[in-house]
Specification:
With 289 residues, the protein is of the alpha/beta class. The chain folds into two domains: 113 residues, ATPase, nucleotide binding domain (Nucleotidyltransferase, domain 5, 2-Layer Sandwich), CATH 3.30.420.40; 164 residues, Nucleotidyltransferase, domain 5 (2-Layer Sandwich), CATH 3.30.420. It has a five-stranded mixed β-sheet. β2 and β3 form a beta hairpin. α1 runs parallel beside α2 and α6 packs across α7. The radius of gyration is 18 Å and the shape is globular. The two termini are 23 Å apart. The C terminus is likely disordered.
Length: 289
């Protein structure tokens, strides 16, 4: 059975995993996201010690996911300035000499949840991560969504909640969802990290209002069978009930479906936790081909 590697390339950490064609993850490791060359050397050394036949990467964006584009596998105009225009896929192909599949981190997580996790067996799924940034992976009719680039749904513009005057943390947008509701946005607004604010009801009332605005938009645009939420901020489990109620209020009865009637089963937490990427499917072929 082939040995398949997987990387979840995030802005804060890189999660490395070793798995097989049946989707079993046999070993995992986390390393901090540092300067590109040093980080790639550390990752390549980890996989070289374990011998992999192929590798799948789910990377933070924006990034080029079109195999027909000469820039396929490069990080694009990211706020993480050291990584701008870095050829992540090419660097690992050069060091490991194996086939490397490539997509966004949230698309990889969406694929994993649809294959083994909270959306198993469903063909239309939105996976939203709320952490260092906010991103969405979208599956439509069983295929990960790509167009001129990939969905950057964390940067949709949302209306300000009345009374909220906090400055956006996004360097590109003054009123996008990531800029107002990501982990760094919470810390800037309240002066503490999300994990330290668990008992502050006003924090989660505001956070859930912004997230419900985003999720209701995704429901209207993508019509998913299920919405799966992950990321560090969603460890605050009290958010789920608030988000469900506010999303239903925002939709205001416009959509009437069995899925929305059972909203507790429609907006759900991720099931795979730190192993949401599917190494079998990501490593076996370029997932965006």
């Amino acid at each position: 059975m082939a040995s398949i590697g997987a990387i979840e390339a995030g802005g804060t950490k890189m999660v490395l995993a070793l798995g097989d064609e049946a989707g079993h993850i046999v070993e995992m490791e986390e390393i901090p996201t540092t300067a590109p060359d040093a980080c790639v050397e550390q990752m390549a050394a980890w996989f070289a010690q374990r011998t992999v036949d192929s590798l799948g990467i789910g990377a933070f964006g924006p990034t080029c996911v079109n195999p027909g584009n000469p820039r396929f596998g490069q990080i694009l105009e990211t706020p993480k300035t050291a990584w701008r225009h870095f050829d992540l896929r090419g660097a690992l192909i050069h060091r490991l000499g194996v086939p490397v599949g490539y997509d966004t981190d949230v698309n990889a997580a969406c694929l994993g949840e649809a294959t083994f996790g909270a959306a198993q067996g469903l063909s239309n799924v939105v996976y939203v991560t709320v952490g260092t940034g906010i991103g969405a992976g979208v599956m439509v009719e069983g295929a990960l969504l790509h167009g001129m680039l990939h969905a950057e749904a964390g940067h949709i513009t949302v209306p300000r909640v009345p009374g909220d005057a906090a400055r956006s943390v996004c360097p590109y947008h003054s009123g996008c969802l990531e800029g107002l509701a990501s982990g760094p946005a919470i810390e800037r607004r309240w002066g503490e990290k999300a994990a330290e604010l668990a008992g502050r009801d006003e924090v989660w009332e505001l956070e859930s209002s912004y997230l419900a605005l985003g999720i209701s938009t995704y429901v209207l645009c993508y019509a998913p069978h299920r919405v799966v939420l992950g990321g560090g901020v969603m460890h605050q489990e009290q958010l789920f009930a608030l988000i469900r109620a506010k999303t239903r209020d925002l939709l205001n009865g416009y959509l009437v479906t069995p899925e929305l009637e059972d909203i507790d089963s429609y907006i759900v937490p991720r099931r795979l936790r730190g192993s949401a990427g599917d190494p079998r499917r990501l490593g076996a072929r370029p997932p965006c081909a």
